[in-house]
Each structure stands twice: as structure tokens, then as C-alpha cells.
Amino acid sequence: MKFLSSIGKYVLLMFRVFRRPDSARQFRIQVVTEIEQLGFASVGIIAIISIFMGAVVAIQTSYSIDSPLIPRYTVGYITRSTIVLEFSPTIMSLILAGKVGSRIAGEIGTMRVTEQIDALEVMGINPASFLILPKIVGAMLIFPVLIIISMFLGIGGGYMVSYLTDMVSVETFLYGVRSFFLPFEIYYALSKSVVFAFLITSVSGYFGYNVRGGALEVGKASTKAVVQSSIMIILFNLILTQLLML
Amino acid sequence: MIKVENIVKSFDGNTVLKGISTEFKTGINNLIIGQSGSGKTVLMKTLLGLHQADEGSIMFDGREFTTMSEDVKKEIRKEIGMVFQGGALFDSLTVQQNVMFPLNMFSEMSEAEKKERVDFCLDKVNLEGKNDLYPSEISGGMKKRVAIARAIVLNPKYLFCDEPNSGLDPKTAIVIDNLISELTREFNMTTVINTHDMNSVIEIGDNIAFIYQGNLWWEGSNVDILNTDNKEINDFIYATKLTRHLKKT
Fold first, then answer.
1. pLDDT of residue B159
2. Tens digit of each residue's pLDDT (9 = 90 or more) over B27-65
3. Which residues contact B35 (CB under 8 A, 6 or more apart)?
4. Which spans in chain A are helix H?
5. Which of A220, A225, B4, B86 could form a disulfide with A105 if both were Cys (CB 3.0 to 4.6 A apart)?
6. Over 90: is that where the pLDDT of B119 sits?
7. Is residue B81 part of a domain?
């Protein structure tokens, strides 16, 4: 019952969020700010994790292939497929759910308990739209860019392994990376990243917006935002994979 | 003028406001006083539309507020300035950006005109030269003054203040009280102040509404309140040793 009530409240909040912004100029400024704060500020962590994960995938694939019947270029092929199809869009989104989701819930929750949201409402501003919509739009624009960066760097990590070790030659690795490439895979990955961006920002915004109490409740809301966003990402990953890959 | 008629508000079966009717007149300081938990904050939030009244009506200069659509309510809210208890300044914005915020949202002024208006309002609250400081870099009294400057920047017809001098030393509190009072008269606003500070009551209480257990228990001026024999009011006013001592002398 509580679950259904939460879904109802979330849907009602989204109706308030997706209203015309009170000031178009202010909205544009906020979207740019959110792109900087949610997106560019995450490039560092995305880069480190992608490079190392790409390298690890290449090493593990190389280690697992011990049959002479399986060509060595499979290392490059598996690295690319893993990074493009699953690691960059899904695992990176889970990491962003932790970083971005807790930030959004904490920021909006603190504004709620310090009456800043009431102040917006009294001024005649729709606080739900003012606070959450720029984050949703900003994230939906910048997450695909982050995911593309992650793809390049992840494959770059695998390339680094081929360059620095004798597990597989650089030429063979790159041949594998180019093998059986379907542009649809990129479309699939970016579609997922846009949906995950929406889920992370809207779910975190919901938990922050509905905080009641003080600092303790803001902390709890941040934790809930990360957990629920992660669960939604896992769930929608399955649904989108079924829908797009069949 | 704001006219309130038979306002009832309940939360989960607990009736907090039990049919309050009163008038808040223009150009004077209208104070709502009462003990903690008496319902004065709920009354103010209901006046602002942050709580929906269960029954009754609220008229802003003849315009019925409770039954208005959200879009029309938004227009009335642009005529309202509000000073929150903690200031409710936006942490990520400087003093200047906080005061300029309503102008950025609702005015067609040029940047130069906005800056001029912000400087005028900061000057009114005696905060010149603090434009570039963040809320975390200024004192509690200054935060209240920035909040007042932000509240008056759009030339509001109605000014609401929720415990504007809570957490301030008595000297600064009186400065804030007198500032609100001067602005009320200068700009001819309908000002409603929620307080339980007796210094404010005596200093600026032109019209005082005493809320007791969700009812409007007593109404009068700061002169009347010192001479009333109403038991609940006397219990409230003379709750401290200092006020009892002053009464004796």
C-alpha cells in the first residue's frame, strides 16, 4: 500500500515538474549549470573507472580464452561489446546514481528543511519545476556524452593492455574491436543512458522534495534516493534490453 | 487589507485552527502572537496558501484566495513578500543574487535597473557593501535584513514575517522590528508578523491577534494588551520573572 502511495506521489510530482518554467531565461541558465555540476564534475570518476574496467575486461577475456579454436581478436570484440552494451550505459549509470543521486536529494532536501522551497512557493514560483526540471533536462543531455566518453576510455583501457603486455597484439585487439560492429549497439546504449538519467534525477528529486524533519531525514533521503535509483536502473535495464534487443 | 473568516484547519483529525476570523489592516503592523503550538504558524502558512484551509475564506483586498486556481494564486503571490524564521536565503547565491532573484524571475528590468533596485533595497535595510558575500559569511541579523530586502524588492502589497527576530539579541531584534515597521508605513503594506517576543509586541504591535488553542482569543493594540485582565494573555505576557517584576514596579 505504501509502495503504491509512493508511486502515486511520484507521478503527481512529475505532473508538477513538467510544467512550463516560470522564467525561460532562468531555466536555460539552470540547465547549463546542471550540465556543469552533474556532468562535467563526474568526468574524473567516469574516466578512472572506465579505463581500469576496460583493462580488466581485456585481461580476464584473454585469460579465459585458452582454446586455440577461439581467435585472439575475440579479446577486442568481447571488450568492446561488454563496454558498449553493458558497462558504460548501466554500470556507469549505477555509479552516477550514487554520485549524482545523493547530491540531488541532499541539495533539495536541505532546501526543504531550511524553508527555501517554501520561499520559492510564496514568491509564486513552482518549486518542483524550478528545482527538478533543469536537473532532469541537464542530465538527459549530458549523460549520453559521459557514456560516450566512458566507451572510448573503456576500450582505451583494453588497448592499453594490448600495448603494454603480450596477451594480445595491438593489431589483433583493434581488429576485434572493429569486428561485427553494429551501429544499433550505440543507439541502444545511448537510449538506455537517457532513460537512466531521467530515473536518477527524478527519483532523487522526489526523495529530496518530500523530506520532512531535519538533517537526519535529509541523510536518510539521500540514501533512499541512491538505493531506489539503483533498483530502478536494474529493473529498466532488463525492460529496455527486452524491448530493444528483441 | 486581508480579511480572514472562519478559518478551520486540521491535520490527521487534530483541529489546529478552530474557526478564526479577523482583519489585517494596511499600513500598520498586524501581529499574531501565542504560545508555541497554539496554531499561529499554521495560520500564517494557511494565509500564504502553503496549507489549504479546510473551511473559511481569506480575502486579499476583496479577492478570495482559498478557492482560486493555482495560476491566479501565483499572481497574488507575486504581490507578497515573506521573511522566513531562518531567512530561507538561497545558500548558493550571494547577498546581491538573493535579493535580485525575484527580479530575475518576474521583472523585465535591464541588468542595470535590477542592480539599482537591489542596491536601493539593501540600502533600506542598512546593508550597503555586502553584495558579494554568501549567506554563510554573514551574521543572523544580517541574514534577516537580506531576507527583508528580498521580500520588498518587488514592491509587495503584503509582507509576512515569521518570527523575524528569533535567535537575535534584544538590541538587534528591536532594530529588525523597527525596520519592518518603518517599511510598512513607508510602502503602505499590509504587514502580518508572527511572533512570541514580548519586546516586539510592545514595540511595534499596532494590532495584535492572540491565538490560544487554535482560537482567536483576544485582539487589541500594544496599549490594550498591557491593561487587559484576560487570564490567558496575562499568563502569556507575564510568564517571565522580568516581566512580572516590571509589572509590579
1. 95
2. 999 999 998 888 888 999 999 988 999 999 999 999 999
3. B196, B212, B236
4. 2-17, 24-34, 43-64, 74-81, 92-96, 102-113, 116-122, 127-164, 170-178, 183-209, 215-245
5. A225
6. yes
7. no
Q: Find the closest chain B residue to A130 by CA distance.
A: B105
CA distance A127 to chain B (A): 12
- Strand order of the β-sheet with B190-195 is B80-83, B158-162, B190-195, B29-33, B207-212, B215-220
B105 occurs within a structural domain? yes
ipTM: 0.84
Structural domain count, chain B? 1
Q: Which of B68, B74, B146 to mutate to test the interface with A (most CBs of A within 10 A)?
A: B74
Minimum CA–CA partner of A116 in chain B:
B88
Look at B84 and A115 and tell me if their CB atoms are within 8 Å: yes
Question: CA-to-CA distance for A40 and B162, rounded, in angstroms?
Answer: 40
Nearest to B88 among A25, A26, A116 (CB): A116
Q: Which residues of A touch B91 (CB under 8 A)?
A: 110, 114, 116
